[in-house]
Design a protein that fits this description.
Layout (H helix, E strand, L loop, with lengths): L2 H15 L4 H4 L4 H8 L69 E6 L6 E6 L3 E8 L4 E8 H10 L2 H5 L4 H18 L3 H13 L7 H9 L10 H12 L8 H12 L10
Antiparallel strand pairs: 1-2, 3-4
C-alpha cells in the first residue's frame, strides 16, 4: 500500500470516530475554492476621494465668543453681511487664503554646489505654524495658521487685535481673506466699536450708533421700497429672472438727458 492511501485511510477512520470533524476532512468543491481564492470586487471596496493638495485642509475649530451669539467665521463660509475683501482671493499659493501668511509666498531658486558650480532647482517655503492667538476683544483664543514673520509683527504691534485693525493699505493686503474675516468679526464687538467711537469724537465727528444703523438699514423707505438685505434679495431675484428694472419718472428723465448730452460738442467760451 502506498503512503498516500495509508494517510487517507487514517483520516477516514478518524472522521468515523469523531463525526464533528467530518466537515473539515470533506473535499472542498470548486465553488468553495473559487470563493476562497477570488479577490473582492472593485464595487465592494469603499471609494476614497483622492486629494491633490500637498497639505491637509484648514478646518479651524473655534470656540464660542462669551456673551455673543455671533460665532467666529470659518475660513470659507459665506457671510452675507460681511463686505467683500477688496483685493479678492489670492491666485498664487492658495494655502495663504486660509491663514495669516502676510506677503509670504513660495520662492524658487537654484542650489549651487561649491566645487563644480552645478545648479539644481529648489524651493523655499514659508515657515508656517498652527497657533492659538489671544484676542482681547473676543475674549478667546483664535486658532489659525500663521507664519513666523507675522508672529513677530503681532508681537511688535501689541497683539492680534492691533494687527487686524491696521489701516495702511499694505496691512489690509497682508491680512488676506482669512484675516479680513477676523477683522470684520472683532469690529462687531462692543470693545472695538467703543474704540472707533472715541476716535470719531477725537476727529470732531459724532459717535456712531451701530445698533441704530442696523435697524435703519432694514427699515423700508418712505415710499414703501424695501431696504437692506430684503432689497438685495429682491434685486438678485430680478437679475436671475432677467426682469426689467422700472425707473421712476425723475430717474428716466435724467437718463434721457444724459443720453442726449453724450458726445455733444460744446462751443469754447470766448
Amino acid at each position: 500500500m502506498s503512503p498516500t492511501l495509508a494517510l487517507q485511510g487514517g483520516c477516514l477512520r478518524a472522521a468515523r470516530r469523531a463525526p464533528g470533524l467530518a466537515h473539515l476532512l470533506a473535499p472542498a468543491s470548486a465553488a468553495t475554492m473559487t470563493a476562497r481564492i477570488a479577490p473582492p470586487r472593485t464595487a465592494d471596496l469603499p471609494t476614497i476621494p483622492r486629494s491633490f493638495a500637498t497639505s491637509a485642509a484648514s478646518r479651524y475649530k473655534q470656540p464660542g465668543v462669551p456673551g455673543s451669539d455671533l460665532p467666529i467665521p470659518s475660513v470659507s463660509g459665506k457671510i452675507p453681511e460681511m463686505p467683500p475683501y477688496p483685493y479678492g482671493p489670492r491666485q498664487v499659493y492658495h494655502q495663504s487664503n486660509k491663514g495669516l501668511y502676510g506677503s509670504s509666498r513660495i520662492q524658487f531658486g537654484n542650489h549651487v554646489s561649491e566645487k563644480h558650480s552645478v545648479k539644481a532647482r529648489r524651493t523655499w517655503r514659508p515657515n508656517v505654524h498652527r497657533k492659538r492667538l489671544w484676542s482681547e476683544s473676543l475674549g478667546v483664543f483664535v486658532t489659525t495658521r500663521v507664519t513666523t514673520r507675522v508672529l513677530r509683527t503681532i508681537d511688535k504691534v501689541g497683539g492680534l487685535d492691533e494687527y487686524l485693525l491696521g489701516r495702511k493699505p499694505q496691512r489690509v493686503k497682508d491680512l488676506g481673506p482669512w484675516g479680513w474675516r477676523l477683522r470684520w468679526r472683532i469690529m462687531q464687538t462692543p470693545a472695538v466699536q467703543e474704540r472707533l467711537n472715541r476716535e470719531r469724537v477725537a476727529l470732531g465727528l459724532p459717535p456712531k450708533d451701530y445698533d441704530a444703523f442696523r435697524r435703519d438699514a432694514e427699515q423700508p423707505l418712505p415710499d414703501g421700497t424695501p431696504a437692506g438685505e430684503t432689497l438685495m434679495v429682491e434685486t438678485d431675484k430680478m437679475l436671475a429672472d432677467e426682469s426689467e428694472f422700472q425707473l421712476t419718472a425723475d430717474e428716466g428723465e435724467a437718463a434721457e438727458a444724459a443720453k442726449d448730452d453724450f458726445m455733444k460738442e460744446e462751443k469754447p467760451a470766448r
